Amino acid sequence: MKLNKLFAVLLAALLILSSVAALADITIGVPDDTTNEARALQLLVDNGIIELAEGAGETATKADVIAEGIEIVEIQADQIVNQLPDLDYAVINGNYVMDAIAADFDISAPLALESEEAYLPRANVIAVKGENADADLTKALVAAVRSQKVADYITETYGGGAISVVDEPTDGYDPDVDYDALAGQTIIIAATPTPHAQILEVVKEILAEKDITLDIEVFTGYTEENPAVDAGDAYANYFQHQPYLDSYVEETGGDVVSVTTVHTEPMGLYGGKQADLSALGK
Fold first, then answer.
1. CA angle, 244 as apex, 238 and 246 as ends, to 5°?
2. pTM for the full model?
3. Residue 152 sits in the same domain as residue 238
4. Contact residues for 168 (Cβ-Cβ < 8 A; gap 6+)
5. Strands across the sheet with 213-218, in order?
6. What burial letters (b/e) apply to 17-35, b meaning 16+ CB within 10 Å?
7. Which residues pair with 186 in a beta bridge?
8. Whole-number Å distance between alpha carbons of 144 and 197
9. Fewer CB atoms near the end CB (10 Å): N or C, the chain?
10. pLDDT by residue (tens digit) across 240-266?
């Protein structure tokens, strides 16, 4: 009897030690750029996985994380999916998840998603040089982007990975714009591949009806699109949310402004080596 009790105590101790050891090995990947890292950490806070130091907000980093047994791993946003198999979990931007799915990468459904309060303020924007904010060419671009055709395309194509934020879609055209005067002009727009460049293909068709050419320049990173607009190498860009643009302007003094919001991409927590949240005690 005493041996059975001793065995039970030892077994319980081993289970506790095993649980602690497992928790000590938990790694969670997050984007390493300022606004997206803070956003990813807030998702973890909202789901009771970590806490953040008092005062940590839109610029929170792993240094602000309060969590025993959890290692936050900062990774370049476009590389997190590739490193997911080596992590327990990762918080990933919606566009990279869509890229992964399109490339047949084996990725599960998200284990947790941002709330509307988190992702709606980070809707992706069309941005132009400040001096072009009120130009007719910009108004034509905005009307096409905010069309019902584009909103329907986003809803039908991305299944919630991207969500249109246009409240009152247009027919694709601005009644106050003289389209005849714009005929023959070209808009060069810098964009990331998914979903931005794909959405712009729909916009391209709308503008083509008025003999306006949309030249979509595809970039695979985040560092060149705003400088391209600033330098006049691109008329507009479509790849970022407002906090990212605000950071760019603050850091560089650039003259790039948003002219409309288009869609938002909820961040999600995805399993790598873990299939569910049980390793986190959830």
1. 105
2. 0.73
3. yes
4. none
5. 163-164, 256-264, 124-129, 236-241, 186-191, 213-218
6. eeeeeeeeebbbbbbbbbb
7. 213
8. 14
9. N
10. 999 899 999 999 999 999 999 999 999
% of the chain beyond a pLDDT of 70? 91
Per DSSP, the residues of 44-70 read: HHHTTS-EE-TT--TT--GGGEE-TTE
Instruction: Outline where DSSP puts E strands in 112-212.
Output: 112-113, 124-129, 163-164, 186-191
What CA–CA distance (Å, rounded) separates 218 from 89?
A: 29
pLDDT digits (tens, 9 = 90+) for 190-229: 999 989 999 999 999 999 999 999 999 999 888 999 999 9
262 sits in which H/E element: strand 256-264
Residues, the chain: 282
**Could you tell me if 127 and 256 lie in one domain?**
yes
How would DSSP label each residue in 3-17? HHHHHHHHHHHHHHH
Question: What digits encode the pLDDT tens for the residues 147-193?
Answer: 999 999 999 988 678 899 999 999 999 999 999 999 999 999 999 99
CATH of the domain at 62: 3.40.190.10
| Domain span at 172 | 121-264
Give the DSSP per-residue string, 193-219.
Answer: IIIIIHHHHHHHHHHHTTT-EEEEEE-
C-alpha to C-alpha distance for 153 and 167, rounded to whole angstroms: 15
Count CB neighbours of 174 within 10 A: 18
Whether 110 and 139 map to the same domain: the answer is: no
Q: Based on the structure, what is the number of domains in the chain?
A: 2
Q: Which two tokens stand for residue 206?
A: 């709308």
Give the integer Cα–Cα distance in Å for 217 and 188: 7
